[in-house]
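yo

u said u wanted the structure for the complex thing, so here. seqs first:
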Amino acid sequence: MEGNHAFFVHKNQLVNALQHVQKAVSSKTTIPILTGIKFDIGTKGLIITGSDSDISIQVLIPLVENGEEWVQLIIPGKIVVPAKYILEIVKKLPGEMIEFEVIDHFTIIIKSGSSEFRLNGFDADEYPNLPQIIDEEEHVFTIPSDLLKMMIRQTQFAVSTIESRPILTGVLWNLENQVLKFTATDSHRLAVREATVESLTNLSFQNVVIPGRSLSELSKILDDTQTPVEIIVNENQILIKMNHVLFLSRLLDGTYPDTSRIIPDKYKTKIIIQTKKLLESIERASLLARDGKNNIVKFTNIENLLIEVSSNSPEVGNVTDQLQIKNIEGEPVKISFNAKYMLDALRAIDSEEVQIEFTGALSPFVIKPIEHHRILQLILPVRTY
Amino acid sequence: MEGNHAFFVHKNQLVNALQHVQKAVSSKTTIPILTGIKFDIGTKGLIITGSDSDISIQVLIPLVENGEEWVQLIIPGKIVVPAKYILEIVKKLPGEMIEFEVIDHFTIIIKSGSSEFRLNGFDADEYPNLPQIIDEEEHVFTIPSDLLKMMIRQTQFAVSTIESRPILTGVLWNLENQVLKFTATDSHRLAVREATVESLTNLSFQNVVIPGRSLSELSKILDDTQTPVEIIVNENQILIKMNHVLFLSRLLDGTYPDTSRIIPDKYKTKIIIQTKKLLESIERASLLARDGKNNIVKFTNIENLLIEVSSNSPEVGNVTDQLQIKNIEGEPVKISFNAKYMLDALRAIDSEEVQIEFTGALSPFVIKPIEHHRILQLILPVRTY
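structre next:
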């Protein structure tokens, strides 16, 4: 029959691939074909694709890998399978290998052991083509998977969640002199992270702004190894190439604001403090305040090396916490800030001690590790004194 | 100051006690005092109580247990602490011991390490007294904790969730000749579980109906040991006494229907089947149907020892699954039922094989373990053939 195609695929490989691809599929899409996942079976193997038109994810399950036969090709072809059911069905099938066959154009027969599913599929010709990205060596840079994942974790939380300035819902990527720099801000706080990366040519770009949601989905796919990931950026798209996985995201339109002038270059007070102790103290102070609108905590030098962290919620009560600091330079501190911003910033810094640089009760302050300055968190204080 | 009281309590003991007591506290209560947890410190130790007036839970933290000093009494007294914050505060306090002090009548000071919380409490005199239950030996029976927990798990899921017949939202307990019997039904299915229990006298009762929600909270507190639990029932209340924990629930008003006549005493077909294989097969068959209103699967003898489990969802597709059975007696089976009821019933039977007794396509059928008949699940089929 015309259009018939068939193949066998190893269950665990398919479950793994579907879990990746489903991160790009939205149940809220207005484009019916995008509620499906495209299966394309050919001589390379089985290629499955999911997309919500902002993010597209494509996974290849090769015919053979490391001597293991993952896919057995019978007749090549393509079909779009309903995303809502396919992962659960595959997970619950009894056998190790699963047979797919397409009949009567779009009816998919899925067999394994003594089970047989018949699903109504969609025409793969209606599935949108992924944007083509010129994949030439001079446009590529590479970064270890675990480093990219860490850089996302250390910045992405600071993007704006309000749509009034859409450009701030993304993370700015700059590349210059082999230094990749991520910047995120919601205009109340700022997170910056830098790292050295490799490119064959002296590749550089500015104003590449990637939606926060894309990065959050990407970081779920990135593994915690140092395996290099290839990245290619063009005017509208970014492509991240992992082992057998392609991740494609659109970029945000518009010009990202210049944030360099916000970062103070001198300070009035510099303190050094244990990260975990400060984190726990802010957590306690925010327990009563977190239901309030601003979740404000006060941070006050009460003795040279003693800080009081406090908050007050008139109806509930108040909390004060005393905290030893390791070192202080400059004038005593008395400042108020949003506890959530401080918690986010401290959780992003994987360092036993942090230094905090204050430039006055109403000026932004900066939190950094003390070992290196490749990560910087900035918070705008709140007026309460 | 009048009414001042103070004590120290071990953090882990208090966290544990609060986690139990909070199961009885509802944030939706219309009685403000019940948004709090009562702390009562005296010579026995610290007694904490939570209640939503349907369920009350009381935990004693003794002054000393197994040579460990859990509570240090300074001045006795009582206070009601806001439930919304207290557990999180205690969990996040830095020290091993926590100091409580009440000043100015209802201000609670909580100190640990360098942290100090001040919370606005409530007057403990406004907290309702728990109903008194006559705790005489002749009204008590005992049951191992793990057995009671299992009996709840095997019946409670079958209670009705609709309020139109309130009595069916509870589980019926009967005790006669040292046999405790639980019955639950939502009028589409029925779960019955029996066990032998101990009582000093030949205690018996009928028509004791305990709200399903009470049992669900109780089973979270029951531990998985054979430690005996004491149970006392009166006209309106049931009291379950565990080690240092009292659980009190109101009973449902009304007469529970007589379900004994629904259970067929003969069958037209009896099959024996592996529980896990049947469960997995029904799970697959219900994957496509579960979004539909009825989640119907068909169960048909296609050969003597071969069953086809199938379901059809016109828009999505269909599924058929073939299943070997171990034994069949009587005429071939052809029946349809709600997959969820079957899954619930099979998950409640901890037995490698089950026997199912059918009495016709439109009559209730019965699922039991084959080793014993102390558990019985009954399902009303659906007309589709």
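The mean pLDDT of chain A is 93. Chain A touches chain B through 31 residues (CB under 8 Å).
cya
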